[in-house]
Amino acid sequence: MIKAAITAVAGYLPNNVITNSDFEKMIDTTDEWITSRTGIKTRHIENDSTKATSDMAVEAVNLLLKKRGISANEIDLLICGTVTPDMVFPATSNLICAKVGANNAWGYDLSAACSGFIYALVTGAQFIETGRYKKVVIVGADMMSRIIDYSDRTTCVIFGDGCGAVLLEPNHEGFGIQDFILHSDGNGVKHLHMKAGGSLNPASVDTVNNKMHYVYQEGQAVFKHAVYNISEVSAKIMEQNNLTANDVTWLVSHQANKRIIEATAARMGLGSEKVLMNIERYGNTTAGTIPLLLWDYEKLLKKGDNLILSAFGGGFTWGSIYLKWAYDGG
Asked: Out of 3.40.47.10, 2.60.120.330, 3.65.10.10, 3.30.1130.10, which CATH number does the structure's domain 178-324 have?
C-alpha cells in the first residue's frame, strides 16, 4: 500500500525582524503584555514592497529541491496554501512554478487560513496514494503584513511573514500520512474574516477608507473556539489510531498562541518536552507555521517518529493529521 511521505522540508523568512520593543514605540502596548498573552517576542516582516508571497515560496521551494537533489522539472504538482495570494488570479502556485522552472507541473491555491497547510497536505497526499504522481510539493505561505492594520493593537502584534514547503513522495514501508480529520464551520466567519476585497464587498474608495481590507478578529471568541476544537481533534486522531501519549513523539501544532498550544498538549496528555514551538521567534505566519516548525526542528526528527499535526484557522477551519516521519533529520 502506498503512503504519502514527507521526504524533504524547507522554509524561508524575510530578513527584517520586528520586536515587541519596536511595537512599544508604535502602539499602546508592552513587551510583557504581548508575551504573556501570546508567547511572541519577535516576528519577521517583509519590508520590500516589490516582494510578494510567491517570492517567499520560491526561496523555500528552491531550497527544498536542493536538499532533495532533484530538479524543478521533476515536480508533478504544487499546491499552495495561502490567504495572501500575489493576486486574485492567476493562482500563486502557478507563479511559483513559473519562477522555479517547474515546467511539467500544474498547481492551484488552497484557502483555509491557518489550516491551509494541513488541508493542502491531505489533498496532495491523495495524488501520491493513488499512484498518479511521484513528487508533489506542498507550500504554506503567507505575507500577513500586507493585510494587517498596524494601528490595531489586538492583531498587529500577532502575525508575521513566512513560508514553508515539503515534498511528498510515495513510500512502501508504511511511513507517511496515516490518518487525518478535517473540519470546517462557516458560522465562524463573524469572528474572523476580512471584510472587503471579494465579491461581497469589492474594493472601492469607501472600503479602503474604512480599513476593510485588513484582518478582523474577535480575539476572545476565536481563542475559545481554537482551544476547544484543536484540542478535541488532536485527541480524537490519537483515539482513532489507538495512540497513547507515550506513542506520540511530537506535537506539531499551528503557532497561533502559546496558551492554545499548551492547552492542546495537555488535552493529549503530552509533556512540554514533546511539543515543537517557535512562536516566540516567528509569531503566527498562518499557513506557514507548521512547515516552518518541521524545518526548524528537522534535525530532531527520526525515521518512524509519530507526529500529530494540528491547526485551527479563520472561517472556521481545523483539523489534525497523524503521520510517521520517513527519514532521519539532519
From this structure: 3.40.47.10
